[in-house]
Design a protein that fits this description.
Two copies of one chain form a homodimer. In chain A, about 45% of the residues lie in helices and about 15% in strands. Chain A has about 300 residues and is an alpha/beta fold.
Chain lengths: ~300, ~300
């Protein structure tokens, strides 16, 4: 909450880096090339791929750091390159923290309790011996219920970190599960929202901002439902995907904020990090892709700032 | 199904390795020691930890390979050691495949579509350039609905691999979400079972065994519900956790099989891999922990074989 206020920017930039969409200059620097079909060459060296992820990510972090309080780094795009990819993920978490940013590790993990404990240790604990600086917060999946979330909460509390529990996701098919109607008139997503608030409001988890270290991933679906979810989770910060490439409107996103303009952090990934391919940025900064990213990031911040202050 | 028949053993052994529970001999071999509280020394070298995971896992694989068709390796216990841990996970996947075992990568991943595609590529594709041999099947989470599962199915079909979708998990709190009653009288878990069958039964996914490459994780809760779920998913192989340490009874597990004794593969983890600490195995094989594991594994196979053939 402080970091958002300091930058006057309730947003984070999502690093979901697909090498196939990188600016040619990044690929050249690390000696990678795409085939005529635009795909990465089969058998591309994983070390080269990890280098590309690292080089691209570092530039994005450098240019967005003055404008946003946080980045969200999705580990799926790194895990694809196995050991080398995971190393690049960890390097970028550290790089972003060193740039003064808060880092959300978008890992969407969950397992039964004693396995969740291992994930929590992996992703919420610094480990100097392994040169690992953990993210400030991570995303987790609620399908197993509370006892799989508790290990994450325990370590988050101990370390001054946080988590965002998936409540309502931004994909089309989410409705198949999350929109199921329960007999009390709530959808499953809304019911999960109530559960998450009950976890978030526990003793010792709510800070002086009035918000808990347990937040929620909430993609606005329809206005009435988003309003219900906002009411159901008064102490949760919402991590809001779907602005930009995924096409949520300003009004839909506005509903995720409380009336005082706090309570949400809006993410954009592709619409910022691939700005070199998006007009007007691509043409305006044709020879300097990081400036295209920076311009798109500034416009994104302005757009969300307007929305939050409605 | 063939592999189960060949070994006459509808079981897999779960590798959820916690270094703190390893036989002292394994720790000595790699130069690790536990503190007086039984915890790993703070700042323990991650390479040493990964070596311990690898040494322990290799021995378990060696002794269980003659008796079981498959092992399930839970990546959470490896991710805890970051890059070195992931390397050990991949080494053990390869080791188990080389031992002639099928491997279930217990990763419980899911994300929105284009991110799930990255997870699917990471965990269902061999990658010779990175010396990665992928597991034969993986576990995935259904909370996002079909479009996050489709990328896994697409790559599984192309590669002759499979997946197990979480339907009913074995932890206490699972009921908070999975047992929610829907207006049609089904629980959420049972509704998800119906969804998974609709995905599993699609053209091209069902093999000559009559089973699909899309299976389900089903921990039996009560008999009536397990019977409903078995009926709702006629073409799905059930991966059944909870036998052994988690305390499901033989009759509860029996309900996961179809009447011909096929359709389920039962997992035991802690009750087999830590047999050196479980009587009568610990005492009988005090100086030879792998023999304790082998004896516990044989007893586990016999117990499940009896159950399946009821």
């Amino acid at each position: 909450v402080d970091a958002i206020q300091e930058k006057n920017a309730p947003v984070c930039v999502g690093l979901d880096p697909l090498i196939e969409r990188f600016p040619p200059a990044v690929l050249q620097d690390v000696g990678l090339s795409l085939g005529p079909d635009g795909a990465l060459q089969a058998g591309a060296d994983p070390i080269g791929c990890a280098d590309a992820l690292r080089a691209f990510g570092r530039e994005v972090i450098r240019v967005v750091a003055p404008h946003v309080p946080a980045v969200k780094i999705n580990i799926a795009f790194f895990e694809r390159y196995h050991v080398e990819g995971v190393r690049a993920y960890l390097d970028l978490v550290r790089c972003a923290r060193e740039a003064g940013l808060l880092v959300i590790g978008d890992i969407k993990r969950a397992d039964i309790g004693h396995s969740s404990t291992q994930y929590a240790r992996a992703h919420l604990l610094d480990n100097p011996g392994a040169e690992v600086a953990a993210p400030d917060a991570i995303t987790v999946n609620p399908y197993f219920g509370f006892d799989t979330i508790r290990p994450f909460i325990d370590i988050a509390r101990q370390e001054g970190r946080g988590l965002f529990v998936l409540v309502q996701t931004s994909n089309e098919s989410a409705a198949e599960v999350q929109n199921l109607a329960l007999p009390d008139g709530l959808t499953l997503g809304e019911h999960v929202a109530g559960l998450v608030q009950s976890w978030a409001g526990a003793d010792g988890l709510v800070g002086r901002s009035g918000y808990s270290c347990v937040g929620a991933v909430v993609s606005p679906r329809d206005l009435a439902s988003t309003e219900r979810i906002r009411t159901l989770m008064p102490q949760c910060v919402f991590l809001v995907p779907g602005f930009g490439a995924q096409g949520r409107t300003a009004q839909e996103v506005a509903t995720c904020f409380r009336s005082d303009g706090t309570g949400a952090i809006v993410n954009a990934s592709r619409s910022v990090i691939y700005a070199h391919n998006i007009e007007p940025y691509g043409e305006r900064f044709a020879s300097d892709w990081p400036r295209a990213v920076e311009a798109a990031c500034r416009d994104f911040v302005t757009a969300v700032r307007d929305v939050a202050q409605r």
